[in-house]
Write a structure and sequence with these properties.
By secondary structure, this protein is α/β, with parallel strands linked by helices. The chain has two domains: 63 residues, no CATH class; 286 residues, Metal-dependent hydrolases (TIM Barrel, Alpha-Beta Barrel). The chain is 29% helix and 28% strand. It has a seven-stranded mixed beta sheet with strand order 3-2-1-4-18-19-20, with no helix packed on it. It has a six-stranded parallel beta sheet with strand order 5-8-9-10-11-12, sandwiched between helices. Helix 6 packs across helix 7 and helix 9 runs antiparallel to helix 10. The chain is globular.
Length: 371
């Protein structure tokens, strides 16, 4: 199959053609054009790399912790919004519930369900977090045991682990997790700046939903947020413009080279207002957000096509906004063949209207999905 339009390559936009074969990009050619020229020529579609979301709890009414067909449902919902690869994200829960969720996830990780995003693996968000910074996580936080984490990893590949470095045992655990092939993120934490810096020195490499559920920046007590702004190469951020003010997003963009967007989407994503499950919690979708009954933010309804539009709306160039939704996450996970349009990469391609940035069509590993 051959597509024509303004193609965003790692080197910038080209006006040309992209050919897909056997699930990969077989060829790409064209003449370089500026972003201004691209946006001015609304008659030709935009072709961008598929989004990569490393923090997804649910969507389409389904929650990762439900087991069964839930992961296929959520992966299809997010694929309809341009996410072609994702990490299924768990909740803090008793060990047996986490094990059951991972057993249900494993088949979808082994083989991409038709019409769905590729599930790259698991983001284990808890239970090794601070009981003082649960956010919307249930109260099942506990200290870590390496054999326990490795046993979970054997059920389904864990690509990211969120932990609180101040919890006893967590700091010493980080090198072993990194050695096992996992990325360690600092999150749901009341740590000091010094404790967060110690975690980075031990091998932690990211921050979970920056600014949310972590000790804030104060000029005499920089906290985890301050450690991220001072030292991080990568961090997640939720750009629904509800979790984080646009000014704070822009501050993070200036400070963190590999800042990447996540949805932190719940089962409520793509669904009408009402009550939904988030692990053991019941959450309420209303007024564009998701909250617990006490008003605590509890994940989001965000999809990454809207994240892209939000970033452009607050002033980012389209090329940078796209990279924050795709290429940076791929680089963080060490994926050289996703998050970019170039020969040899997976044919994860989005076609958008140049004027509105609305999705027109999605290809996941060369499979055409309804946009």
């Amino acid at each position: 199959m051959q597509l024509e339009g303004h193609i965003l390559t790692p080197a910038g936009f080209v006006r040309g053609r992209l050919r897909m074969a056997e699930g990969r990009i077989a060829a790409l050619d064209g003449a370089a054009v500026s972003e201004a020229e691209v946006r001015a020529d609304a008659g030709k579609p935009l072709l961008l790399p598929g989004f990569i979301d490393l923090h997804v709890h649910g969507g389409g009414g389904a929650d990762t912790m439900e087991g069964g067909p839930a992961v296929t449902t959520l992966a299809r919902l997010h694929a309809q919004h341009g996410t072609t690869a994702l990490l299924a994200t768990t909740m803090t829960a008793p060990l047996g519930e986490i094990e059951a969720a991972l057993r249900a996830l494993a088949p979808a990780i082994a083989q991409r369900p038709p019409g769905a995003a590729r599930v790259l693996g698991v983001h284990l968000e808890g239970p090794y977090i601070s009981p003082d910074k649960l956010g919307a996580q249930p109260a099942f936080a506990r200290p870590p045991l390496l054999p326990e984490v490795l046993a979970l990893h054997a059920i389904a590949p864990i690509r990211l682990v969120t932990l609180a470095p101040e919890v006893a045992g967590n700091l010493a655990l980080i090198p072993a997790l990194v050695q096992a092939g996992m990325r360690v993120q600092i999150g749901h934490t009341a740590a000091t700046y010094e404790q967060a810096w110690a975690a980075l020195q031990q091998g932690a490499s990211g921050f979970t939903h920056l600014f949310n559920a972590m000790s804030p920046l104060h000029h005499r007590a920089p906290g985890v947020a301050g450690a991220a702004l001072a030292h991080a190469q990568h961090a997640e951020i939720i750009p629904d413009l509800l979790h984080v003010h646009p000014g704070a997003i822009r501050a993070a963009l200036r400070a963190i080279p590999g800042l990447f967007c996540v949805s932190d989407a719940t089962a409520a994503a793509g669904m009408p207002d009402g009550e939904y499950g988030l692990g053991r919690q019941t959450v309420i979708k209303c007024m564009g957000g998701v909250r617990l009954a006490d008003g605590t933010l509890a994940g989001s309804t965000l999809t990454l096509d809207q994240a892209l539009r939000n970033l452009v709306a607050i002033g980012l160039p389209l090329q940078e906004a796209s990279a924050r939704c795709s290429q940076h996450a791929a680089h963080y996970l060490g994926l050289a063949d996703r998050g970019r349009l170039q020969p040899g990469a997976w044919a994860d391609v989005l076609q958008l209207d140049a004027a509105t940035l609305q999705l027109q069509q999605v290809w996941a590993e060369g499979e055409a999905l309804q946009g």
